């Protein structure tokens, strides 16, 4: 079984995910749940409500019921697993939790969220304190929102909702970045990721620093490094952005792009081309057939901040994927 934690975090603020409602956040705001950063902790750091936590923490419940927070997924899709991370919550973590999910169109408010058809995707399960609590999810439907229920109260540092992005085709332009993680682009193989995972290249926005990209170790042979990207849908690619921002003494000297068709044929899209350090490059690609994957070769090694592949996607394939995950 594939490690679901290698899949994108659909709830992450990096995709635009957010906490849209929480019934209680007395000690710490629920917004912390979707932060892409790892939770931190500063012991004996107090404000007017007590110890400061990098997570969501509710007050001690003195009445029946339980606490909950509703998260809008930044990238709707099929959820393959969740991580209810209670890092640094020791005597104040919830002993149990469950998760429900729903499909809602547009931008629902509290009333619509309350009336939504919520589906339980994780039954009430035991949690451990100060731990990453991993649970696989078997429901293969596409969801837009999740509701984290904690029993009866307590603190959770992060909620990671790992899965496969399934965008709504009617909200996509005719030409878009088919490699983008927010639309379902995904790294499926690479030669080396010593300093940084290549999936970072497909994330939204500009890279913040050298650690927010893909970087390989230094090669001492005659080969070169490469990464293989599965596109959001089969597409005819037209432009590529190869961004070496922040990589100054360690940018690749050259790069090339190859498309791979559904039949396995290889098509040259960008011949071996010189790159400059710390520079966003845009290249017009050679016209070719529809491809399902693209391989980026860097020569001989180095770092890349972002990779964008703009093209015209196969709309029938996008709609087929959408329909595939609408029913149980």
TrEMBL record:
Which UniProt keywords are given for this protein, alphabetically ordered? Hydrolase, Purine metabolism
**Sample GO molecular function, one term:** allantoicase activity
What is this enzyme's EC?
A: 3.5.3.4
Q: In which pathway does it act?
A: Nitrogen metabolism; (S)-allantoin degradation; (S)-ureidoglycolate from allantoate (aminidohydrolase route): step 1/1
InterPro entries per record? Allantoicase, Allantoicase_dom, Galactose-bd-like_sf
Q: Which residues form the Allantoicase domain?
A: 16-165, 184-313
Which EC class is the enzyme in? Answer: hydrolase
**Pfam families for the chain:** Allantoicase
Q: Which reaction does it catalyse?
A: allantoate + H2O = (S)-ureidoglycolate + urea
Task: State whether keyword Hydrolase applies.
Answer: yes
Q: Name one GO biological process term.
A: allantoin catabolic process
Q: Which family does it belong to?
A: Belongs to the allantoicase family.
Tell me what this protein is called.
Probable allantoicase
Q: Which organism is it from?
A: Actinoplanes regularis
């Amino acid at each position: 079984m594939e490690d679901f934690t290698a899949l994108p975090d659909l709830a992450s603020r990096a995709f635009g995910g957010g906490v849209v409602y929480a019934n209680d956040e007395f000690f710490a705001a629920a917004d912390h749940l979707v932060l892409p950063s790892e939770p931190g902790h500063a012991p004996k750091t107090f404000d007017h409500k007590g110890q400061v936590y990098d997570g969501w923490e509710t007050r001690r419940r003195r009445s029946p019921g339980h606490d909950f927070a509703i998260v809008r997924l930044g990238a709707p899709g099929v959820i393959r697993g969740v991580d209810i991370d209670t890092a640094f919550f020791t005597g104040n973590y919830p002993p149990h939790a469950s998760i429900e999910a729903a499909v809602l169109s547009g931008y629902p408010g509290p009333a619509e969220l309350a009336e939504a058809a919520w589906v339980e995707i994780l039954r009430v399960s035991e949690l451990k304190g100060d731990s990453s609590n991993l649970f696989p999810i078997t429901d293969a439907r596409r969801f837009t929102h999740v509701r984290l229920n904690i029993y009866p109260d307590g603190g959770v540092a992060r909620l990671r909702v790992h899965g496969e992005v399934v965008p709504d085709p009617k909200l996509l332009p005719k030409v878009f970045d088919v490699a983008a993680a927010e639309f379902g682009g995904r790294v499926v193989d690479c030669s080396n990721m010593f300093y940084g995972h290549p999936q970072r290249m497909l994330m939204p926005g500009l890279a913040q620093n050298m650690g927010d990209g893909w970087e390989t170790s230094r090669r001492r042979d005659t080969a070169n490094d490469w990464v293989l990207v599965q596109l959001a849908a089969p597409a005819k690619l037209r432009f590529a952005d190869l961004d070496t921002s922040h990589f100054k003494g360690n940018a690749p000297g050259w790069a090339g792009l190859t498309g791979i068709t559904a039949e396995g044929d290889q098509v040259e899209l960008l011949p071996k081309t010189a790159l400059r350090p710390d520079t966003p490059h845009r290249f017009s690609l050679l016209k070719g057939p529809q491809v399902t994957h693209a391989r980026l070769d860097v020569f001989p090694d180095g770092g890349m901040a972002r990779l964008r592949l703009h093209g015209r996607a196969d709309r029938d394939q996008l709609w087929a994927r959408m329909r595939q995950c609408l029913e149980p």
